[in-house]
Fold these 2 entries.
Entry 1:
Amino acid sequence: MAWSNCLRVLGERRERHRSSALTPFSRDSLEKSPLGFSFGTKMQRLRAIETKQPGSFVVIDNDISKPPSHYLVQSKDIILPSLGSIRLGKKLSPGLNPATVVYLDGDLRAKIGAFQDDDEFELNFLQVVILVVSKKPHISIKRSYAILKDQGCKSIFAIHQVIPEGPYFAQGEALYRTWRLYPDVYDAFQLPTISQLDEPTKFSGITITHEGNLMVPVPSRLYFPKTKQKPLNGMRVTIKDIIDLEGVKTTGQSRSYEKLYGPRSRTAAFVAKLIKYGAIIIGKTKCTQFASSDQPTADWVEYHCPWNPRGDGYLSPRGSSTGTCVAVAGYHWCDFGIGSDSRMTPQDQLESLKLTGKLAGGSIRGPASVMGLFALRPTQSLELLPGFLQIIPDIDTPGLTCRDAELFHRVCLHAFGRRWSRDEEVYDNVTTPVRSALPNGEAHREYGLSKLLLDFQQASRHLIKKDVHVLAPGTNLQDIAIHRPSPWQSPVRPTTLLYPEDYWDQWPEGPVKQQMEVAVKKLEAYLQTPRVAINLANIWLKDNPHGNGSSLAEDLEDVRTWHLYCKDLGTKLTSAYTSDIHDASMERFRRDFEQEYGHQPYVHPVIQDCWKRGESLTSAEVEKARHHKRMYSEWLREKILGGGGFNVMMVYPVGDFTPFYRDVYRPDPKDRATTYNWFEREDHQSSLAGVPSVVIPVANKVAQVEQPSKITGKSQNLPVAISLMSGRGTDVDLTNLILEMTKLDKGGFAGKVKVGKEAF
């Protein structure tokens, strides 16, 4: 069989609908053994096939049953003759030579040992070693060669030119950087990408496939040592396919949208910020269409839904940031993912509620909760949205998910590390920064949380010891505000832990809720304060914000939330890049498509239903809905959470208490029940108020929750999570609290989550 029939490379389009059957790269085999490669004894076994991208190659084996192992890009400024005459050992073979660049600046044996901790590095790369030396190296080249020969080194060069350490390939006169190719066995990726070496915000799509799987190119971390300026250097990141990367298309998971518009001309500002700090974007991940509430089998029409790595392999991965969470939960070579966070349509909320008894919602928080990941919905801000396909502009925000509590906090610190003040103007939850005066009188548009923590840490700790009032259940909520420090004196730990009975009482007693209760008790012990049980519906009636005695359910009835969702999704698919034709409204998309192709674009049934409902709404109805939303949002932020500051924190349940499977068929959206009280969804509250919310996996290896599997007929261990919410600008406070609790010897949370079937 010719390689052209087995391998399709850059520039070729992959099949739209690949088979869901497991290939030789089965999910089970991926978990049992890492994908490796072997050069064998003869270099002729490896070949480099040039792609349609100049200077790029794919490394293959003559044995066609083996997958392509590496993607190569020539380092244009490095030519082997420039290595000079300092060479020991054999000449380079005419074929493909695996090589390693090493700085000769310390213990060589220790450095080679440290290299082996990198998941891309193998000892085969030591066959050719290029030493980067100073003019007077402290260790001789001959001595280095003697050390390296024991590791299989055949040729050694010495140069003064500074190039990144790590694995390479040498062929002829060229030296190539290498990306290890991993199979996307969980079908999480829409398009793997690599960035240009000299312009890291510009990208090329990589469409290599083998045995039906996309192959994802992943670079060695050795190329990207962490520095103070680049604290995220070498971290591999996925990006949801409603977020722009320059040079590749944003599809929104719509084939019509993909066909109509070309590659993006700019990378989303938020993503560019991550790249500035050293993050490596490895691809765009699948999501529900236009970040709606599609469920697998029932609604995923144009692309196949990714596979949830947890449990028996057939659980729903939820949405809308489906592929983002699947990649983080399934692949050790993916460090964190960027999705978005909004909410789900009311008819899908009710349908899933009927099927599972509960719903994991929130576009990043829902998938993370059922896969046992850390997740963050940050404080709402317009600054985060340029380059996003915004579905509901006054609710949408980027979202973060991660397996590691330390990295979770580090990313949050650099991506969302700023604090909201009362001097900022707020409209519909979207924060517009204005010039705010700090306590020292210096004016800033925004300011870093880390600096404030340094300035106020000592004062905060003093406040905790002196002014905290332990509130027993039943305490009048208004009393909390009397004793609450100002936002400038926010404590390192919250002084009040709210326990909303409205949400907790919805969950039936059982092993899932028992594990959640254990987690709440851990929080109480860590904060040294008992929970304050509250009932939001009763407090709303007592406060009577509208002055007409209406209940919270009446003010957030489903028709008004439908006004927000259907009107926005039906007419306002927007982006902050308004000058770019690709970032037009949904109306413009429909008009452009019909003008180009003579008919309306196809969209999934859920979107079609939203279009129909949105078109029937009047401006007055939409404004009425927005007014009710603003009233509730302001009440939740100010009356319940006390505005900005980390003084009050709410804990609530999240996830599914029974397994929800991907093979469930549902009625047509127009036939699905839509009478659903939006207030009953606990995860919607942070979306409405524009405040940060985090998801924490709380089970551990000893206390995992067993659930029945309808696939195997046996039990399966599934993750359990809780969620925390606090005031504006407390994003970093929340992730820091999680990190601190993972450091406890006893009574804390697990700091790391595994990939594969079980989270712990």
Entry 2:
Amino acid sequence: MRLINVTNLKIEEYFGTDIPEYAIVSHTWDATEANFQQWTNRVARLRKSKLPGYAKVYKACKLARQEGFRYLWIDTVCIDKSSSSELSEAINSMYAWYENAKVCYVYLSDVRISSKENNMDVLSLFRTSRWWSRGWTLQELLAPDNVIFYTREWVKMGTKYALAVLIQEITGIDEGYLRGIRRISMCSIAQRMSWASKRVTTRDEDLAYSLLGIFGINMPLLYGEGSQNSFRRLQEEIIKVSIDQSIFAFDTGSSDNTLLAHHPRDFAAQCRVRPSFARKLTLPFTLSNAGLSLKTPLIQTLSPYWVLAVLNCVELHWAQEDVKARSIICLPLLGRDKKYMRARAPVALISLGADTVGQTKTPSAKTRYDKNIADTQTVGKDSDTSTPENASSIVKTMALEIQDLTTRNDTEILVSYFSRIYPLYGNEMDEAMKGFAVSEMMLDSNTTAPEQGFMLTFPRGMGEYRCLLSHPSTDLYRNISFFLPSASAVPVSEVDGRPHPRHNTLPGQVTRGLLVFAHSAIGPRMRSITFGDNMGLVGIYLALDSVTGNWTCRIIDLGIKISITASDLEGKARIGDAMVLGKPEEWVHYDQAQNVVVAARTRFETVKGKPCKEAIMVEIVFDVKELVEERDLE
């Protein structure tokens, strides 16, 4: 390590434990910077001493000397950049050099103090300084404990610790990391990538090389390889030493390589992603020339070609500085037979609501299950569910919800490239992918593409159930597992002849539909059967309010027999109408009946508005008893 002796301005070299205490400088470059050869030439140094790049080094040495330091490091003159081996060693060591420095002087050459400027003007210049946008300065901010900011005139502005709240606003880096309360190594990969998402470097490859220390990575430098190759190599090296699956939580929109990101900006929206809170060891995953091999839970859909892979990381949702909810990050995958590729539609990533935080007392899963079952048995008891008049057959919404419905069973899968997965399934894959053009089909038929729709998922699979039919039948798109209800809800006055005092729903404001799921034991000649905790036929009522943007999901127990005529299905759908129309408190996003749960607590905007502009993810579980037993064992 080369250091400037601040007394005689000579450069001295030290190794290992012989390195003395030193101050270090962080700055942005301009056209007048000195280099190693020029600085070691005393005559050249004196002749150019008034140039900004040289004056900066002189002033930093003077400051270090005044504060009792004998040595100073600055990248312009302490690295012999004519030697590629020395440059590579310096870049791989730079994070450690900043981390080990006793103090880091941040010189903001574009933050100027004059007699005409007040404190607000200086803070404005501080916020917009070029220093915050450069790639290399990210590690120079994070690595040292003691960071002091100086203006162009070398006037002290404050420390990283004192200015942490303001720096958090500028960079998006939590003040806990800036003040040393939390360790950078505990951040998720996605979160650290998000910090670099808006930064730039002069040389394309440096965008990746400037992140080496932040991820604890060492790798050779190959200038000329391009930014995408260097960033790919960085991610490959991270995967070798880390089991953090958030490295795959990036937006594939700007990338033709859907396995790894092209640029840190692909992680721009992942600043809230953290390592998983689950009591589960992340299983090893590997990246090879075939693709990504990993074991992870899969969320099934109605389509044999679409699944969601559950990553072992979460997104935190904040409210007034407190964590209020956590979401599981899911990757939509397209393929079959445990061989998939990353999907771009309907969305590249889904943040699935997992739980809420801040309850005074969280009951066990079994307590929630028993409470909901007890309430279920008191609702609709001895009622005739064959007519819409008996709306009490809808299970009442419970205050206690089972929030994380995903399976804990891992499936070993291969996530590969489009060019390798697509040819395996030919025309079948084409049909599945064309399903997302449903909105275009609707427009061709002179109807308006829907604003909202439901994406049907099964976090624990469908078990002994199958999707029998839907009403209206044309609203279910099985190949993409979407339900886009188009039938208008029937006002209460038309259902039971008595107008509801709070009913003010306009015609067409609420659209809804009904999905019917049948147990495998149900057959054409089946008259009666004992299902235990299971229902023979399950009706899932889904409704959308186009004015408020709200939605609801309810369960209807259809017994073991149902007519498949449109009129009978419409009658069942009107049971739901009677329950929710004019009753805002009944527009719930969770319902449970016996061994079935339906939840619709996650919504997201789709890519290019296909098959609808906004999708609500519906989770349907048919084995609630087994689910709660799993959770209570954790």
